[in-house]
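Render this sequence as a predicted structure.
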Amino acid sequence: MRVIVTVVDKITSEAHLNIPDGLSELAIKQHITDLYNSVEMLIDLNLCQVDFESISAQIISENSDTKSA
């Protein structure tokens, strides 16, 4: 018997960043977005919390394998 199990978790990570002084709120958001998109921030992300959302299983019948001719 084969079973496909799907687990959904919500992962919360945090990073402590140094942001240049004097930026507007919009500029700060853009700076953070740019850091994230450039993958620079991913190095600093620390796993803080994992919340279990759901789990499901699908049983795959051995007889349901279809072969193309």
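Summary. The mean pLDDT is 86. The beta strands are 2-14, 46-60.
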